[in-house]
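Margin note from the TA: students keep mixing up input and output lines. Inputs are the sequences; the output is the structure of the whole complex. Example:
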Amino acid sequence: MFAKIRVLGFSVLMLMTSVASAHVVSSFSVLDDLVRRILPVTVETRVLVPAGRDSHGHQLSAGDLKALKSARLIVRVGAGYEPWLDRALKSTGSGASVLLMTDGVVLREIDHEHTHGSHSHGHHGHAHAHGARDPHVWLNPRHVREFSVRLQTRLTELYPEQKKEIDARTTAWLAELDAAIAAWSKNLHDASVRGPLLVPHAAFGYFGEAFNVKFMSLTGVDSEVEPSARQLAKLVTEVRKGQAVALFHEGDRISPLIERLSRETGVKALGHLYADTLSVKSDGPRSYLEMMKHNVEVIARALALSPAANHPKN
Amino acid sequence: MWSFLVEPFVEFEFMRGALLEAILLGVSFAALGVALISRRLALIGDTMSHAMLPGVVGASLIFGPRLEALIVGGGLMTFILVFLAARWRRRPGFAADSALALFAVFSVAVGVLIASGTRSSTDVLHLLFGNILAVESSLLIASAVVCALTVGTALVGFRAFTVALVDPAFFDSMTSSKTLLRVWLLLLFAANLTLGFAALGAMMTVGLLIVPALAVRPFVGSLLSWILATAVAAVVVSYVGVLASFHGEWPSGPSIVVSACVLLAVGSVAAKWRPRVR
């Protein structure tokens, strides 16, 4: 049904959309924010999956395809994060330069111990395309730092006449990022409890790596899966035993399964974490820095609450 | 044996919730499924899942992406659509199925246009794919109410219901308050489908709506026994499906529907070996 809706949506949009050609196209909202921190404001940008939408299993509009075809640079995550983009790039025959955020990063293997669920919903008619590597590298800010430097290099190659501004913007951005990384690390440094924290989908491996926090998740890296009753039962048992100190929702959504787990175990859901998309709420995080700051603050607060205070049974 | 069959439900509240919701839906769907199969409208549920989109999207603009949005918007839209289709059907050259197809396609197009203008369309669409393991108590209560109303209506209006199914033309000429009755039946239909979507997701709802009624069909003689047997079958497949999801590590909604299909397969083999009850 979903596929049908999308096919229809596609043809409708094809008739409607006409867009000014963007020079730099980013695959999703977080990348778009990073690109715009470095790119001079005079260069047009476009984001394929805007904030509030899920990057897993997205479908492109005709306007997106047009932008891809005429783009000079396409910035994406890679590592199977945007399978829909592979097909589009092939079909548009885009000659744009492509920059992968996951390039040069040693990707995490997906930890099967704590990623329950691998059954595809089947609603979207696309294959489970992630493979066994976790693409969510931007949740480790050090990877973002390295990526920013690579982006700077690539942009100065493409826009040599604007090198001065690109360099100046990069320097300012990196200074701000470094200060933020230091502040985040400090904020999370003192907690005696390091998790595990239960999130809806396995996106926070790199965050855990960066700040020494343990995560577990309802489903694997693909957010469009449904855990079986057995997997849910295992999680309930683990959470009851005190093996998860807090539960979280993800993005702007409330996860019904997290709600269910919370009610079943008495362990509270302590807020929303952001990974695959920036917020569209006026009080939610709307840039990369805000998103990471928000995540760090929510997690620090959760870790600071002692397990005894949070666990009714202990 | 006990630990295999019963303990999962004792230990985990979400298992009880899922089972209860599936049973409520299954029982409530029994008369509806029988009616749809008799009237050769088995695919109407699929049509409706498309048709609900603008209602759900529109309502979630007001309520936010919540269950209430799905129930109010989806239910209203289903009601309007079936009502329009039922009226349109009497035009010459316009069968009920073409009318439904027309309205469904139109609503999907409108729904997609509205959704593309909102910023959190994914959240809205997530609502259409419910997960029965995560049913909220508000959904359970709503399902219980709708189930009671549906069963009550089927019992009270059983004669009218029989006539309507067996001889729709005679039914049209017979009742004086038929418009009111029709509106009430359509409301029930819309409520049942909407709750099914919220709990099971669109496609799985159609499965639970149709398959149990088909499975027991070879073994029943009268309309009443058909409906009763369907309700019993729905309870059985709900239990088997949720249990299979637990022991087999399968997603719960599809487990229930596959259990129903297995029952249908076993039933049709068995029906060949046993003489029909007449």
